Amino acid sequence: MKKEDMKFPVYYGRPILQILIILIIAIISGFITYKSFKAYTVHHTYMLVIFGVSLAYFSWLASNPFAAICEDHFEVASGLFFVRKYYYRDLKDIKQQGNSIVLKYNGMETHTISIRMMKQQDKGKFFETIKFLIFKDAYERE
Predict the structure, then answer these.
(1) Facing residues of 77 across strands?
(2) Model-level pTM?
C-alpha cells in the first residue's frame, strides 16, 4: 500500500440493520404520536419525546460514518455525542482483539475502541489501514 494509492478521507459505515432498527422505532413512535394528537393523552408527550430523539439519532446515524481515516489522524464516532480523534503521531502500536482495537500510546498507556458497530467486511480493512498509517508515520519521524 503506497501513500499515492490512498485517497483521503476514507470512510467506514455502520451496519444497515442498526440504522433500520432506529428507523423502525422512529416510524412507530411517530405513528403513535400522530394517533394521540386526535385524542390528547399524557402518552402523547412521552411519545413525542421518543419520536424526536429517535428521529434525530436516525438522521445522525444515516448521515455520519462510523469511522473516517485522514492523512494524519482517524476519527471514530461511536455515539451521538462521542466522536474521538486519534493522531498517528501519538500512537505506538495497535492490536485487534475480537470486536475491539487496542491502541498503545507512546507513553505506554492503552485505550480500547469498540468496533462492533462497524460493518463486518470493513473491520479487517480498517485495522490494517490504521496499522499501516501508524507505522508509516513512525518511520517518517525517524
Answers:
(1) 83
(2) 0.77
Whats the size of the chain, residue-wise? 142
DSSP string, the chain: --GGG--S-EEE---HHHHHHHHHHHHHHHHHHHHHHHS--HHHHHHHHHHHHHHHHHHHHHHS-SEEE-SSEEEEEEETTEEEEEEGGGEEEEEEETTEEEEEETTS-EEEEE-TTS-GGGHHHHHHHHHHHHHHHHHHH-
Q: Span 17-44, mean pLDDT? A: 81
* Nearest to 99, CA basis, from 134, 126, 130: 126
Res 81: pLDDT:
84
Phi and psi at residue 19, to the nearest 5°: -70, -40
Residue 42 has pLDDT above 80, yes or no: no
| Closest to 117 measured CA to CA, from 21, 7, 6 | 21
Report the alpha-carbon distance of residue 3 to residue 51 in Å, rounded: 45
